[in-house]
Amino acid sequence: VCSSDLFRLRHFGRVLYLVEVVLNVLRIIWLMRRVDFSRASVFDVHGVGNIAPLIALRILGLPVIWHFHEANVGPTIEGLGVLGRRLIRNRSHHIIAVSHRAATVHQSPQATVLYAPIDLEFWKLSDLERAHRFSNIKLKIVSVGNLNPLKGFDILLDAVARLDVLVELVIVGSVLDSHRAYGELLFRKANDLQFLGHSVRFTGWVEASHVRSEIATSNIFVLASKSEAGPMVLYEAMALETVCIISDVGDAREVLGSGTGYVLQRMTPGWIVNAIKRAEMLGPAGREQMGSRARSAIKPELFGRTIADQHLDIYRKMLILTRNPL
To answer: In terms of DSSP bridges, do strands 167-172 and 199-204 run parallel, antiparallel, or are they unpaired?
Structure first.
């Protein structure tokens, strides 16, 4: 059962969301009745707020592996999380969280924490890309994410406006239909920066290879998010030996470690400006050394093979419980 099979009324957090939940519960049960659902052994559910599959599986009596991707808690998410935990109580289940903070926020200390995996070979800096960094006329700063308020791009743009050194800012990510107004705000701020002599570029949605190229040729990576669980793009920037400036979200601080970048104590333009200035003062050689330490700081828990093996182990244990060994 994929999300494309379900109803998406886009009313999360509103009364009509209850209608969407009921429709999707019935839809899932109907889809499972169409196939031989007695052969199903495990059902994956992604997202704390994805309550409809949990209700349907409670009715059908199927075991659940529930994935937590969110680390921000509002009244709606918190309430759905409590309801979800009640639904799977006394049922065969396993919870996987993408960060320790996500597990803690959603009151699930028993969850297995599995970070998003990183392919160190793909996210490896080439000699040509390293040379490109040294040849940048302007300091190149890259930030990655969909253009929505939680990513903090407006704060980053305000910070660049305060810099006394000209930079090239590249924001990689698409404009969401649900946040068109926010996208327009960012474009207006970017136009103002152009008048000050800065270069600002929005790439829109791009393939992973393009994301990699933008980070690999940058001098600084900025994660300005107000909320993240496990910021995968941080791991990628670290693997590409990039100086990282990050907000204290999810497990980002723990992943980055000490002496390998800058953690913002507050998510304000002033703090970002201060961190960019410190990175700029390091010079090319200093930034290269810090970037090298960042890659070395990537822990085995982030390796793709390690995470795949841990996932497989969880599925094997669940399948043994259902007498369908893998």
So the answer is: parallel
Residue-wise pLDDT tens digits, 179-207: 999 999 999 999 999 999 999 999 999 99
Q: What is the pLDDT of residue 250?
A: 83
Q: How far apart are CA 159 and CA 268, in angstroms?
A: 8
The per-residue pLDDT for 326 is 45
Long-range contacts of 246-254 (CB under 8 A, 24+ apart): 246/222, 247/152, 247/223, 249/71, 249/223, 249/225, 250/71, 250/98, 250/99, 250/101, 250/102, 251/99, 251/100, 251/101, 251/115, 252/223, 252/228, 254/100
C-alpha–C-alpha distance, residues 231 and 252, integer Å: 7
Confidence at residue 6, expressed as pLDDT on a 0 to 100 scale? 75
Q: What is the pTM of this model?
A: 0.85
Matching residue, tokens 């929005």: 202
String of DSSP letters for 94-150: EEEESSHHHHHHTT-TT-EE-PPPB-TTTT---HHHHHHHHH-SSEEEEEES-BSGG
* pLDDT of 242 higher than 90: yes
CA atoms of 285 and 79, how far apart (whole Å): 50
